[in-house]
Amino acid sequence: MADAAPLPKPLVPKPLGLLAELTHRCPLGCPYCSNPLALDSRDDELDAATWARVFKEAAALGVLQIHLSGGEPAARRDLVEITASAHAAGLYTNLITSGVGVTAARLGQLWDAGLDHVQVSIQDSTASSADHIAGYDGAFARKLALAKDVVARKLPLTVNAVMHRANIGRIGDMVELALRLGASRVEIAHVQYYGWALKNRSQLLPTREQVDRALALVEELRARHHGKIVIDAALPDYYARYPKPCMGGWGRRSLNVTPSGKVLPCHAAETIPGLEFWSVRDHALGEIWEQSPALNAFRGTAWMKEPCASCARREQDFGGCRCQALALTGDAAATDPVCHLAPDHAVVSALTTLQEDAPYSYRRM
Amino acid sequence: MNDDTTSIPPDARPRLPRGVRLVQNETHGWTLLGPERVIKADPVAVEIIKRCTGQATFTEIVDDLAAAFSAPRDRISTDVTAMLRGLADKRLLEL
């Protein structure tokens, strides 16, 4: 068979979304932040011209939506210029913000730059609890102010309500708040345990009873507010029967670019040892998407072990999350232990009872 | 916003709000983009959504589609109602 033609390489899927982490700087200290524990410094951040090039390359690669995130993207003085360059590349622009640093005047500039959508996170339904969770006095009031400015300009607003043990009982209040603010969409975002959240897991993890009540309530709220607000929610990972299809599959639908320019399949991928990430400083984005060793490491299904390899859901769950498999089993190629079929599922069952009321380790540079 | 969950007023002038865009792209074809949403638009959906400019009324859109595709008006009306109602419920269309 030595002269046989090599098998054609399977086509690399085309991404739909790019998360642009413009900076790791953020005035808030949320203990569940998805940024890595080792944060990029300001000196290492890509400049606006490089982002503009990345956006053009992203559009050529098929990307439709750019999520401008961080850290707090408004910590960048050139946020308006960066947004304008994404819009000029023909991309749908979504600003993911804590609200701090986006004044009414700056929002006006972002509107002129072509911003399509704003997502504001909230930490709770009352100022005192919300500011305690964020580790920043006055953050709640500034979020509400931005939300009003966004709606006044008729920009679509999503309220991202991050849920964990301290606030999960107030889902109803947070959805009411989102309605009052005029949001068209609210995300009930249960904390996922990576980065700073993993460090604070025992302080954040809800109980099974809390989760069961929350799920029933979300169904009720969806029915009650049908047509008025879209409620997106997912089952908190550790309490699910099957794993989440993390990122819709590794290197399949979306990619992250870090403040310093590294291209990742997801927020947490740098926790997996031995992966070689390429940077937009050294390569064109299309080349990275198709050829970088990290993006190919868990692409498709060939890397899977049993029970994933022969599972009927392998193209649906994609084996779950590689970072979680690594964090909980020590093997990034193992079945995500959230899955009830995973050999290591007992690890997750044991974790769900490890609540401990201790002070948060706030995210700090 | 109209709260009726099954019909669309004949004089409604449906339009895509800011933050919702119908785009054509070499890689993915026609898609409707909204907040955290990428919805593939088939040729029928494209023809309907293109007409949601805020200028034409629902009645005019249905008449126009019935003429353009030589199709029964009732059938077109039912299909357009279902699609626009679905988009409005997802806050992707203003009526």
Report the radius of gyration of chain A as a whole number of Å. 21 Å
How many E strands of chain B? 3
Distance between the termini of chain A: 56 Å
The oligomeric state is heterodimer
Structural class of chain A: alpha/beta
Write up what this structure looks like.
The complex is a heterodimer of chains A (365) and B (95). Chain A is an alpha/beta fold and 365 residues long. In chain A, 34% of the residues lie in helices and 12% in strands. Chain A has helices at residues 48-61, 79-88, 104-112, 127-134, 139-152, 171-181, 195-199, 201-204, 208-224, 285-291, 293-297, 314-317, 322-329, 345-351, and strands at residues 17-21, 65-69, 92-97, 117-122, 157-163, 185-190, 230-233, 254-257, 263-264. In chain A, strands 7-6-5-4-3-2-1-8-9 form a nine-stranded mixed sheet. Chain A is globular, with a radius of gyration of 21 Å. Chain A starts with 16 loop residues before the first strand and ends in a 14-residue tail after the last helix. Chain B is α+β, with helices and mostly antiparallel strands and 95 residues long. Chain B contains three helices and three strands, in the order βββααα. Chain B has helices spanning 43-50, 58-68, 73-89, and strands at 21-25, 29-34, 37-40. A three-stranded antiparallel sheet of chain B has the order 1-2-3, covered by helices on one side. The radius of gyration of chain B is 13 Å and the shape is globular. The chains are: A alpha/beta (365), B alpha+beta (95). Chain A binds chain B through residues 14, 16-17, 61-62, 64-65, 90, 92, 94, 116-117, 119, 154-156, 158, 184-185, 187, 226-230, 232, and chain B through 1, 3, 5, 17-21, 23, 25-28, 31, 33-36, 38, 88-91.
Question: What are the key terms here?
Answer:
heterodimer, A: 365 residues, 14 helices, 12% strand, globular, B: 95 residues, three-stranded antiparallel β-sheet, 3 helices, 16% strand
Concise summary:
The complex is a heterodimer of chains A (365) and B (95). Chain A has 365 residues and is α/β, with parallel strands linked by helices.
